[in-house]
Design a protein that fits this description.
Elements lengths: L2 E5 L5 H13 L4 E5 L6 H13 L4 E7 L4 H8 L4 E6 L2 H4 L1 H8 L8 E2 L3 H17 L3 H28 L1
Helix pairs in contact: 1-6, 6-7
């Protein structure tokens, strides 16, 4: 598989569903695992090592609250890691955002916005990273962007006609 998505708990699955659909749409092989930076650190290390051995090229990690999962994964690998801060009670995701984005020098994590939009963008960024080596994937991305632009133009025309 090319992309591995780690979620910190089963409650994070709803956040990453759209990301999985994007990876399927682009025909990018992926794996999904639940693991926790705090509750199962040995499992997290074991999974990172296993997926590296299996050829994973990009890791995505979604976690809330003290969202250290992406940082822990990044500490174990030199492959790109994309973090998705998950919105949760109390601070509405600000805690997760800051935990994911405030990485120490030398341990980079590409941090997306919070929630489902962040997860979708994480999948698209993973596809963009993979497209650097895969021209067919790059062509699919270009077509995807053309379709988005065409939809904006169509929406504009429809709105103007309704006025």
């Amino acid at each position: 598989m090319d992309v591995v998505i780690f979620i910190g708990s089963k409650s994070d699955f709803d956040i990453v569903k759209d990301a999985l659909e994007i990876l399927k749409k682009f025909e990018v092989p992926f794996a999904l695992e639940i693991t926790s930076a705090h509750r199962s650190p040995a499992r997290t290390l074991k999974l990172v090592r296993r997926f590296e051995d299996e050829g994973a090229e990009v890791f995505i990690a979604a976690a809330g609250k003290a969202a250290h999962l992406a940082g822990v994964v990044a500490s174990y690998t030199v492959r790109p890691v994309i973090g998705i801060p998950v919105e949760s009670g109390g601070l509405g995701g600000l805690d997760a955002l800051l935990s994911t984005v405030q990485m120490p020098k030398g341990i980079p994590v590409a941090t997306m916005g919070t929630g489902k939009t962040g997860a979708a963008n994480a999948a698209l960024l993973a596809v963009e990273i993979l497209s650097l080596k895969k021209p067919a994937l790059r062509a699919k991305l270009l077509e995807h962007k053309k379709k988005m632009a065409a939809q904006v133009a169509a929406d504009s025309e429809k709105l103007k006609k309704s006025l």
